[in-house]
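Why do we bother with holo predictions? Because pocket geometry can differ from the apo form. Keep that in mind while you read this record for nicotinamide-adenine-dinucleotide.
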Amino acid sequence: MSELTHWINGEHVKGTSGRFADVFNPATGEVQAKAPLANADEMAIAVAGASAAQPAWAATNPQRRARVMMRFVALLNRDMDKLAEALSREHGKTLPDAAGDVQRGLEVVEYCIGAPELLKGDYTNNAGPGIDMYSMRQALGVSAGITPFNFPAMIPMWMFAPALACGNSFILKPSERAPSVPLMLAELMKEAGLPDGCLQVVNGDKEAVDAILDDEVVQSIGFVGSTPIAEYIYSRGCANGKRVQCFGGAKNHMIIMPDADMDQAADALVGSGYGAAGERCMAISVAVPVGDDTADRLIAKLLPRIEALKVGPYTSGNDVDYGPVVTGAAKANIEKLVQSGVDQGAKLVVDGRGFELQGYENGFFVGPHLFDNVTKDMDIYKKEIFGPVLSTVRAQTYEEALGLAMDHEYGNGTAIFTRDGDAARDFANRINIGMVGINVPVPVPLAYHTFGGWKKSVFGDLNQHGPDAFKFYTRTKTVTARWPSGIKEGGEFSIPVME
Ligand code: NAD
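The structure, written out:
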């Protein structure tokens, strides 16, 4: 079993706290590595290194910083297969899905190559007699990011690429359940030319996170993970005067209108509900067919598709639809929630309980589940399950379906399937959810737009990636400069007003 490290000041550094987390191979259930869990002293060393490296990095011409990103993109493409394999081995997702995880991060790095343009700022010539005014965006200093297990490549890159492109140094605290790929990304950033200290990877758990939250040098914190932890990090980080953005959990509804193409809707639901074993914050976990006839037609289309799903380890080839969930604890939590659904009266139309895969009996595989007749008061509706479990809530009208999605506490993503442009437009306008798909089940915005939910799926003002990231990772400074010929004539004592 290997012992993983931290990445501090451009090299692998062994953990000194004496505490470790088990990193599993979810397909076999074996512990494949130990990840060190940093204490406050180790975090302080990483922050000190980041702080020392940052001024020179911020003073580097933005085009040179962008060139590091360019080389990083080339290295990601070179190592794509290696990264995807390491990711699948720790996370459990299929190889094509793991490559997609890397690719969606890479696209944000590509966007960051535009840093010189994005950081240019604003300039007003002759704002007053002899006066020019200009606004510039300057790096914050040391930024930090705390990331979840489910996108071990994409989400770290969504954070550190814009932070670094803006001239910050960055402390990444990845999930202790999938720490290998973030370390590989840091190695590649060094190979791409990033100076040592600018990107530190510190593995850990709550102790490391609390050290970040209380460190006076750290200026900003990005977090992606579950809502209770998002709320905690947001409130403690803000109380400590930091700029904080936290992205939390989800319960994404898909409304299926009676006029929808039912084959298209069923295909979309199967991919978005069961892909990555449901461990995506943009997975559809609630199907809301409008009308009983729509519900019956939808379920009839879903059943053969769910029965045909291939569940297996990533090593079984690219026709596997989804793999195991990340840990035994995650599996137990899903099973508990499924049981609560049965106990609370939902109809389990596809029962994935007791699923076993020959040769992988100790793996964390969960069979696909489909519930019908789910109601608003049930735990399977209220809580995020984060597993291959799709719940059907029957609505009688479009307004009832819309109201369900609007009343849910989460507001990450949603979708409507219909042939009616008017219904789709009304839905997009009225819904109180951050990312909306129209006949698109997983509407993850591309790198040059921004990503973020509403309601309890987010804490903070700015979204991830796209133009918002360049705002989050910089402060605006506005300079008013006067070079008049008559400056030697003496001071002015009334407040200046532009004429
Ligand atoms: P998690 O909240 O358990 O962990 C996220 C991070 O927080 C990890 O780095 C972990 O080490 C740290 N952490 C855990 N407990 C902590 C504590 N008590 N104090 C301080 N830090 C702590 O989330 P997860 O299980 O890794 O990821 C799944 C969750 O992330 C789901 O809820 C999913 O919806 C959400 N998610 C949201 C988005 C989004 O953009 N909204 C994207 C991906 C995942």
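The radius of gyration is 25 Å.
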